[in-house]
Amino acid sequence: MRNRVFIVSLCFLLLLPVNEISAGIENALDESTGYEGSIFQGNDENSGQSSSNEAWNSLSEATGLNEDRSSRDKDPNSQDDSVRVGCSDYVLTGERLREIRSEFMYWFFDKGGDDDEGDYLKEIQASTPQTNKNFNFQLPFFGFRFNQTRVSINGYLEFTDPPERYTYPLVFPVKCWPKENDPSFIGIFFSKCRIGEIWSTDRDRRKPGVYFRIERDLRTRKDQLGVEMRERLKWDVREGMSGAEGFVPKHAITVTWKNVSFTGGIDNSLYTTNTFQMVLATDEANTYAMFNYPRVEWTSHTEAGGDTVHGDGGISAFVGFNAGNGTGSYEYKPFSQTPHIRDLTRAGWVNGFPGRHMFKIDEKIIAATCS
Ligand SMILES: *[C@@H]1O[C@H](CO)[C@@H](O)[C@H](O)[C@H]1NC(C)=O
Ligand SMILES: *[C@@H]1O[C@H](CO)[C@@H](O)[C@H](O)[C@H]1NC(C)=O
Ligand SMILES: *[C@@H]1O[C@H](CO)[C@@H](O)[C@H](O)[C@H]1NC(C)=O
Predict the structure, then answer these.
(1) I need a labelling partner for 141 at 20 to 30 A (CA). Which of 45, 161, 283, 366 fits?
(2) Distance in Å, CA 324 to ligand 3 centroid
(3) β-bridge mates for residue 210, sequence order
(4) DSSP for 144-187?
(5) What band does 195 get if pLDDT is binned at 50, 70 and 90?
(6) Domain assignment present for 40
């Protein structure tokens, strides 16, 4: 297993110059300014049609193709061929699709919108570890359906109330349910986190903290980011999970925890940070979760036995899913609550990326297995 991971990593390194790898992984979206006119359409409650894509449209000749792979992998039942191309509609070329799919991290923005904070959740701070978000659509998860969530600094999305306190290692479903609450949650790095710091030399200048964006009604979107999000996610899921060949996302949620440190550490530990990103895609019947881990520098907060300098030792973060109400849980082994959690950045290999993992999560949780 170890050997194989090593060999595959070598191949990857041979294929790409090092600077390209780190560029892909850091995803410094240099052209992000090009999106600023349209990126908030998806987050806008009364989302109308965007009109600011002319510059970008002129970049891509109207080749009439939204995806060049469709001829190869076309599912006769998929509905995405019904997209009609009007003169102001964004047209995605095959070349552009390959380019965006070669980036590791999905889009998140720190600029734009009413307050020019982009997707940044400025309400999440030391005193406020979580915030509520409405979906305005149904997200099937682990046998339930939710139309809202709580985004937590602590590396998870929570749908129902937690127990009063946790002890380590975490065990789900919560043993004393129904006396204690058994929360429904998606845990990408369930721990106790605090917002860290970045070095003045860090290339990605986006603020440390939590970023949240929703892209709704992807099937009818004509703006550049809507079309690109739909096609990118569609092909990443189709090629990432077996059985997803006909999947077309309707709605997507991207939550990024950037440069978060652990609670209980000394001041300097704020520079020991993790970055991870969850992308949820649903057609309101099937739901897929992608976990991207570009950076895992610490494993445990101090209450779970981590040391105060490096956040190391003790019981590592929990990675997995809990259905709630005592109905079931899924812990992602061998990473969750073990020192192997550091290997998350090197394992997975979904869509050819070390550090990318994928799951089907609407009913029973199924992990993608990359052979
Ligand atoms: C969410 O669903 C609940 C019922 O489960 C409903 O009462 C509520 O109005 C819904 N909220 C939104 C914003 O759709
Ligand atoms: C912050 O996160 C970015 C992206 O993961 C990383 O390149 C950078 O080194 C991190 N900075 C610190 C201080 O950990
Ligand atoms: C659990 O049970 C409570 C009370 O019966 C109910 O309100 C809730 O919707 C159920 N589902 C989840 C996921 O907690």
Answers:
(1) 45
(2) 8
(3) 257
(4) EEEEEEEEETTTEEESSPPPS---SS--SS-TTTTTS----EEE
(5) very high
(6) no
Ligand 3 nearest atom to the CA of residue 327, by list position: 13
Q: Separation of 201 CA from ligand 2 center, angstroms?
A: 10
**Atom 13, ligand 3: residue with shortest CA distance:** 324
What is the band of 206 on the pLDDT scale with cuts at 50, 70, 90?
A: very high
Average pLDDT value for the chain: 83
Ligand 2 touching residue 207 (CB < 6 A): no
Q: In this predicted structure, which of 18-32, 47-61, 95-109 has the lowest mean pLDDT? A: 47-61
Nearest of 178, 34, 4 to residue 100 by alpha carbon = 34
What residues line ligand 1, using a CB cutoff of 6 Å? Answer: 134, 136, 147
pLDDT classification of 141: cutoffs 50, 70, 90: very high
What is residue 370's predicted lDDT score, i.e. its pLDDT? Answer: 65
CB of 86 within 8 A of CB of 49? Answer: no
Q: How far is CA 120 from the centre of its chain?
A: 14
Ligand 3 nearest atom to the CA of residue 323, by list position: 13
CA–centroid distance, residue 190 to ligand 1 (Å): 26
Number of domains the chain is built from? 1
Give the whole-angstrom CA distance, residue 320 versus residue 289.
11
Ligand 2: centre distance to CA 200 (Å): 10
Alpha helices in the chain (DSSP H): 2-15, 18-26, 54-59, 70-73, 94-101, 224-240
- pLDDT computed for residue 301 by the predictor: 96
Ligand 1 centroid–CA 136 distance in Å is 8
**Structural domain boundaries, residue 125:** 94-367
> Is 330 within a domain?
yes
In a domain, 60, yes or no: no
Indicate the top mutation candidate among 147, 159, 184, 214 to test ligand 1's pocket, ranked by most ligand atoms within 8 A of CB: 147
CA 263 to chain centre: 22
pLDDT over 70 percentage in the chain? 76
pTM listed for this prediction:
0.81
Q: How far does the centroid of ligand 3 lie from the alpha carbon of residue 51, in Å?
A: 43
For residue 44, pLDDT beyond 90: no
pLDDT at 353 over 50: yes
Would the CB of 183 count as within 6 Å of ligand 3? no
Cβ(325) – ligand 3 distance below 6 Å: yes
